[in-house]
Specification:
510 residues, alpha+beta, Beta-Lactamase, five-stranded antiparallel beta sheet, 15 helices, 19 strands
């Protein structure tokens, strides 16, 4: 109807009811024995027929064939009813895409019974409702296929916060729970929705107070999470992560609180194992006698154990964090070569390399370093172990000196033996000469003077021989001692070409 035109529903002092009905935006139809005896313009437009063509035809003719029986049965049950019946939805014959909703009221007119029908076009509303229903179905499907447990509590009605003293308050407000309840608690979701069971009965006794405080505190905090244990009917304990979030109305009042609960039993077990492993290696890290450290790619010290702090002469880890490992390398060329190799190979080992501490004291170490990389192959840190081999090197030096001394002793043993033998032999000859001299002093004992003189001369000759041998041995010792002093006794520390040192001693060929 044109809004700019006024509707003439009055004739003198009389209001024409049919004119009023004709102006209503809702479809109006009056049926007598299932036939249309009146229809307004709105209904005519809905069904796509002129009013004149509608009068006298069966109402079934305007209904989609597949729904005629349903609608006509509805009309039959409405005749003679004293109260208005629930409405019915159906499609129209000429426009199957259009859906209408009809409510009827029984009427009496001049002794015959009829039906007054009110018909609304609900096509748009129904499409919206179907879209919402499809969305709900999809969401329901998603919820039921989630491994996480989803629980929703509704608080549309007014309530006193003083009532939140135990879990029964939350049991009264639970409105939704997905099918994962069966996996979590061993019973279907319907048990909780129908109040046959409570999800809170499954919470471990030692965790119930913390969980209750968490649920209550959400009304103030808006969001929050908590980790706790639940116990299944079979006595199995599970660890869960419960994340809650409040949904508010425009007035700021809490409308709903949704919880997503995840089973983290395996995850927590793995994390506990990792933590135990970390604690184990941390103890090894701290108790190791060798220096263990972690560096940034640039060489800055991230972490270092107590042995490393002591070896480098640092005060504590705080001071170490301000230092770079480059400061403690003696040979910068050896250090650069080490960095280049680890960049290429990912790990490197140096049996001997020179370090120094904060006092400038130098010492030799064995070094092993490995590069830690991210998923893209980029180095993010270096991890190294340093073993102080200074004492071991000193021990080797002493062993070398000991071996050298043994060689020197072997060199001197032969001429010394000659000297000792010569001296003993000379002493024997001198004793014989002494006896012969005593005989010469007593003429009575001298029988053959010439024989005595011959023996004495023979002994003197032997003495001179052995004296010469002793002198040769003495000179040999003198020469060997000079050689030891000038050549053998000459230990030198020289570079091994990689930042370390080795020991060399002179020889006759040097």
């Amino acid at each position: 109807m044109d809004k700019n035109k006024s509707l003439n529903i009055c004739s003198e002092d009389h209001i024409d009811p049919m004119a009023v009905i004709a102006a209503i935006n809702e479809g109006i139809v009056i049926l007598k024995e299932e036939n249309i005896i009146y229809a307004n313009r709105t209904f005519s437009t809905m069904v796509g027929q002129d009013i004149a063509d509608l009068l006298g035809i069966s109402f079934a003719d305007v209904i989609s064939k597949k729904e005629q029986e349903k609608v006509m049965d509805y009309l039959k049950t409405s005749i003679g009813q004293s109260c208005q019946q629930d409405g019915i939805e159906f499609q129209l014959e000429k426009d199957p895409e259009r859906y209408v909703f009809m409510k009827v009221s029984p009427i009496q007119c001049h002794g015959w019974s009829g039906i007054l029908g009110y018909i609304s076009d609900i096509t748009k509303r129904r499409k919206e409702r179907l879209a919402i229903r499809r969305l709900h179905t999809r969401l329901r499907s998603i919820l039921d296929h989630m491994r996480e447990l989803v629980i929703s509590f509704s608080y549309l009605e007014e309530f006193d916060k003083e009532e939140m003293t135990d879990f029964s308050f939350f049991d009264d407000h639970i409105v939704e729970i997905n099918s994962s309840a069966l996996a979590f608690y061993g019973v279907p979701a319907s048990y909780f929705l129908n109040k046959k069971d409570s999800i809170f009965d499954y919470i471990h006794d030692d965790d119930k107070d913390n969980v209750l405080n968490h649920y209550i505190s959400l009304f103030e905090k808006g969001t929050g999470e908590i980790t706790y244990r639940i116990t299944t009917p079979k006595g199995e304990n599970k660890w869960v992560l419960d994340y809650g979030r409040v949904e508010y109305m425009q007035t700021g009042k809490v409308r709903r609180v949704n919880h997503i609960i995840e089973d983290i039993t395996e995850k927590k077990k793995a994390l506990d194992e990792i933590k135990a492993s970390e604690n184990k290696y941390r103890r090894i890290f701290e108790l190791s006698k060798d220096m263990i450290y972690i560096l940034t790619p640039g060489g800055k010290i991230i972490d270092i154990n107590s042995a490393g702090i002591k070896l480098l002469g640092l005060a504590n880890k705080e001071e170490a964090a301000l230092r770079n490992i480059k400061e403690f390398h003696v040979d910068s060329n050896a250090r650069d070569a080490l960095v280049k190799e680890i960049m290429e190979k990912g790990e490197v080992s140096r049996p001997r390399i020179m370090f120094k501490n904060t006092k400038g004291e130098r010492f030799e170490v064995g070094l092993n370093i490995i590069a830690r990389k991210d998923e893209n192959g980029k180095i993010i840190s270096y991890q190294g172990i340093v073993h102080n081999i200074t004492e071991a090197i000193r021990q080797k030096e002493l062993e070398a000196i000991s071996q050298l001394a043994g060689c020197f002793a072997d060199d001197l043993a032969s001429p010394l033996s000659v000297i000792l033998i010569g001296i003993e032999t000379i002493k024997t000859f001198l004793a014989d000469i002494e006896k012969m001299t005593e005989k010469l002093s007593n003429p009575e004992e001298v029988k053959d003077l010439e024989e005595i003189i011959y023996e004495m001369r023979y002994n003197v000759s032997d003495i001179n021989y052995f004296i010469n041998e002793v002198m040769i041995a003495v000179n040999d010792i003198k020469d060997r001692l000079k050689e030891i002093r000038d050549q053998y006794w000459n230990l030198k520390k020289v570079s091994d070409g990689s930042g370390g040192i080795i020991y060399e001693r002179g020889s006759k060929n040097n």
